[in-house]
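Incident review: delayed structure delivery

Summary: a single-chain prediction request sat in the queue longer than the usual turnaround. Root cause was a stuck worker, restarted by the on-call engineer. No data loss occurred. The affected request and its eventual output are reproduced below so the record is complete for anyone auditing the incident later.

Affected input:
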Amino acid sequence: MRAGCAIRCERRDQPLRQTTLPKMISCLLPLVTGEQRGSVGGTATSSTGAATPSTTNTGYGACTETRHLERPMIGRRELLQCLPAALFLRAGGAAAALDQRSYRGVVRYAIGERENGRETFGVTIQPDGLRTLRAQCEIDDVRLMRDVTVTLDANWLPVVAFIQLTIAGRFTGATWYRFSEREVVAEGYTAADGRISQRFEVTEPVDAFGTHPIHGDAWNLARLRRNGGRRIASPRFTSSFASNGSTGPALVRIPQDHIAYALAGKETVTVPAGTFETEHFTMNVVPRDKVNHIWAFGEDCIPARMVTSEGRRYELIELDGDPR
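Output delivered after worker restart:
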């Protein structure tokens, strides 16, 4: 705030922390524009140049200000710097904090030794176990950009998801998904098919949904753990039957015997992000006679490395926050 300027904006009948954003803006806006408004008290400059203070009780409370009409008291930048502190005030003057745990990282995509893309991800875990993955996946050789948000409950069962695809700089499609004990629903729009609306009835909760980020693939470790380490079958649905997820996105049912997952043991793995004690498991795509190997670690089932039978390699290169 500029020298010589002061502002006090508060409700007489309630503390500042309960003041809403529109009410704050109505008090602050005249200071930015330099205009005196009848609904907010101010200081006018007399013909002698003296400033005469005034106070007006608005419907939002008493706003007392000191300003000169020849220029705004507070610049737009100062206003933006002041707003967050007021918006997030809580009792005792401390900033409000979200009661959640989070971590973030980057996975490098490669073909042999040549970099072929990257996956930037962030995961938040709520106190009740609800976890959300937000991943941006880029695959250079097909010029694909995939944005994925997927939420699982405390039992690692899918709740909602959203996927958007861009290929060669053009919009390919975007679809929203909802999972319940009785049905799976998808609503979206693709460049190939236009508006899509799909619904599948189910007799039990869907145990997994294939969204194609590497971090999402690593979450199959949670399914193996839930099954006592015994071999498990395909997720029942995926967004795309293409191995790189380049079609749709839609709601595609996977044959139960299409993919088989199995534990292969525990291994210490070193990648650019560090050295981790991992659980190694395989992903066998039966019709293609293709086996992918995934190394993941921790209660969060974070991917350290993935290697495919086609020579593609994925490694964790950055990890921070509060992973477990």
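Verification: Residues 1-19, 31-72, 84-95 have pLDDT under 50 and may be disordered.
Action items: add queue-age alerting; document worker restart procedure.
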